[in-house]
């Protein structure tokens, strides 16, 4: 996203002003038109042209301003939405996300959490392994004394902003380890653009139906501080999520630690529709 961990992305070539965008022809030009529009909008947002709460131009307005097709405009908006630079409110319009130089992703569903793989990478710290822990087992598989655990960093543009430990029941962990995507993560430092929860339905045979989330601030211990490049004892954001299936049986416990200097957490609250 333009609002990255360390700031706005530099554009190698100055994007064309919105008012001078060329028509949207068929052929190679059409393949890059939406990216140039997205770059121009990023630059406007970075320059503060759209303050918090101020609506961006609509698709119809941008068609008139740029001469591009509505499909191209929509694709540019989709890219900016996926990277967290903008968000869209049905019936109200499209708005810039106030990121303050931090990685910002808007969450309103489990699908949104899975979409982290669109613009971040997982880097393995500890490959999937058996961990003896009655306390953890009580949360994901009561009556046992061990879980399967994998830990990893979440990176955006090569910069780590989150350290995560995922714990799953032994049976699910063994099936998870057999998946090709996880088999490629068998060594520390291995990377992949994926989320563990996106693999859970294949490993367990039961799709994720809900998640209980707990958010708090904790002092970074030495290991977390080293991995997230912050000082030991510095406050970090801890978000724990327990994922369950439709029968409310636990599938996965994920404990995340975020460096608040590199990450901002946003939740979209939606009204109940009768």
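Q: What amino acid sequence fits the structure above?
A:
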């Amino acid at each position: 996203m333009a609002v990255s961990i360390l700031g706005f992305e530099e554009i190698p070539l100055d994007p064309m002003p919105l008012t001078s965008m060329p028509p949207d022809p068929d052929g190679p030009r059409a393949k890059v038109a939406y990216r140039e529009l997205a770059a121009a909008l990023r630059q406007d947002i970075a320059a503060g042209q759209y303050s918090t709460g101020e609506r961006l131009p609509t698709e119809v307005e941008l068609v008139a301003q740029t001469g591009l097709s509505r499909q191209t405009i929509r694709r540019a908006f989709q890219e900016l939405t996926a990277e967290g630079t903008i968000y869209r409110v049905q019936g109200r319009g499209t708005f810039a996300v106030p990121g303050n130089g931090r990685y910002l992703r808007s969450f309103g569903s489990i699908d949104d959490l899975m979409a982290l793989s669109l613009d971040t990478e997982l880097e393995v710290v500890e490959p999937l392994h058996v961990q003896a822990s009655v306390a953890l087992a009580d949360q994901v598989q009561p009556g046992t004394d061990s879980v399967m655990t994998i830990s990893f960093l979440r990176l955006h543009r090569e910069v780590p902003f989150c350290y995560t430990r995922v714990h799953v029941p032994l049976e699910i962990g063994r099936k998870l380890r057999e998946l090709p995507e996880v088999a490629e993560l068998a060594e520390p430092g291995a990377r992949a653009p994926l989320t563990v929860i996106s693999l859970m339905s294949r490993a367990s045979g039961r799709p994720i139906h809900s998640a209980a989330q707990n958010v708090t601030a904790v002092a970074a211990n030495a290991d977390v501080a080293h991995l997230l490049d912050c000082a030991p004892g510095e406050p970090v954001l801890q978000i724990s999520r327990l994922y369950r299936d439709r029968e409310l049986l636990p599938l996965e416990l994920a404990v995340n630690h975020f460096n608040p200097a590199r990450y901002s957490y946003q939740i979209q609250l939606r009204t109940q529709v009768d």
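Q: And what stands out in the fold?
A: The first helix runs from residue 28 to 46.
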